[in-house]
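Issue 218. Parser rejects a valid record. Input:
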Amino acid sequence: MQLALKRLQDLQGASIERLEGTPEWQEVLDVLFDAAAGSRLEGYNAVLEALQSRDIDLHWLEAIVEDYSIDTVPGLLSKAAEEFLLERNVASANEDGKWMEIDGRPEGFTADEIPRRISRLVATGGWWAENQLLLQGTWKIIIAQGAGELADRVNGDDFRYNPDFEPKTGIQLVFWEGMAEAIFNVVTSVRRRLRLDSPQSSVDGQSRRLHLLDSQNLIRQPQPDEATD
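Output the parser choked on:
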């Protein structure tokens, strides 16, 4: 991504019409495409890793699929991550409203802190109360990451500031689209297996059984390009 931005800076002043179809323009497009594909895959894998480590479970995935449309989930995941970062800011601020740092970096959250932090937000009502389950799962996914965008930009120190000096993750939407795709693909794969195992079972019966399945046997099956039901 940085290479693409540098090339765009180098090409500033040249008209789009003149650049289109040139090797330089294609180079920029190729780098941007690769960066987007990599970001989407990282988001996808973040969900699978949290599922494999049992920080989230199939019951949570199905609840998200039942409560939200796939078109709305990426934006909601992004907002949940921003709320995580804002809550870190609140928790780590000193009397001057600045980050308290440990060994030169802002302090991150641990899994033990999630219930208390979310309870504080939910008590205020509004968006947090309406999306409590989504918040809980998203924050658990963030905590579960040892490296990458979520570990660095949400629970680490590689975040940005907006004009109001509020911390922002700066993570592209395509990353959250990858996470949403993983959520829906896993649930779709489980339901397909249930239909094969028990052709006469109802959708309601499938729903009640989802969280009982062994996630270790499922997370390697769905792929980013797999269509969802």
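Fixed in the parser; the record now loads. Residues 1-7, 100-104 have pLDDT under 50 and may be disordered.
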